[in-house]
């Protein structure tokens, strides 16, 4: 019986790195120039381009701006052959750093935008301890939270909500929001941001 091996999907880091390199060369820019515009070291940009490391979303956004493209363009080739569905295995979501977050507060992005406009972003968020002050976020669109583990007081506008496993919370992303107090750690919850049509 013939052995059939399935062709593996492109690795996310390599796909993003290849697109960044191609866009940089197309614009006639050096690694040093893009690194300076993006506010990162040349060594870091080189590692990102070769796929040996994956930058956080803030860094990717700065690189995209320095290249004059939307951040979603950096993910344009990832899993393009199976664009009808995207399968991310458990634990394989890209770890990202959101502005203001520190250690003990981990975001895993569970799906990557493939079109020209970002439609939604689903995160698995893990919080291990309450040793820091958590930031306040604001963004376009709606956000939906679903608690999986632990207890969390979550601030949205002027209100604070106690979230326990099985609870959900949905709200307008333009309202200032973020964790107020971690009442029982470790905490895990899903955060799904749905952007308005035409949002950049």
UniProtKB/TrEMBL annotation:
Keyword terms of this UniProt record: DNA-binding
Keyword Protein biosynthesis set for record: no
Molecular function GO terms recorded: DNA binding; DNA-binding transcription factor activity
Membrane-spanning residues: none
Gene3D superfamilies with a match to the protein in the record: Jelly Rolls, lambda repressor-like DNA-binding domains
Ranges where the HTH cro/C1-type domain occurs: 20-74
Entries under Pfam families matching the protein: Cupin_2, HTH_3
CC terms in the record's Gene Ontology section: cytosol
PROSITE patterns in alphabetical order: HTH_CROC1
Domain of life: Bacteria
Descriptive protein name: DNA binding helix-turn helix protein
Species of provenance: Azoarcus sp. (strain BH72)
């Amino acid at each position: 019986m013939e052995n059939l091996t399935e062709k593996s999907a492109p690795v996310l880091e390599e796909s993003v790195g290849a697109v960044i390199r191609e866009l940089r060369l197309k614009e006639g820019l050096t690694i040093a120039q893009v690194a300076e515009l993006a506010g990162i070291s040349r060594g870091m940009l080189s590692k990102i381009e070769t796929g040996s490391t994956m930058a956080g979303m803030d860094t990717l956004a700065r690189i995209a701006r320095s290249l004059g493209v939307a951040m979603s363009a950096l993910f344009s080739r990832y899993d393009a052959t199976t664009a009808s569905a995207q399968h991310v295995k458990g634990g394989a979501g890209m770890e990202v750093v959101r502005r203001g977050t520190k250690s003990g507060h981990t975001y895993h992005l569970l799906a990557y935008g493939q079109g020209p406009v970002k439609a939604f972003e689903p995160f698995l968020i893990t919080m291990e301890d309450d040793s820091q002050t958590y930031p306040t976020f604001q963004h376009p669109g709606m956000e939906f939270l679903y608690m999986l583990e632990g207890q969390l007081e979550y601030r949205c506008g002027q209100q604070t909500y106690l979230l326990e496993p099985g609870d959900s919370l949905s709200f307008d992303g333009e309202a200032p929001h973020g964790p107020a107090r971690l009442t029982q750690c470790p905490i895990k919850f899903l955060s799904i941001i749905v952007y308005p049509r035409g949002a950049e």
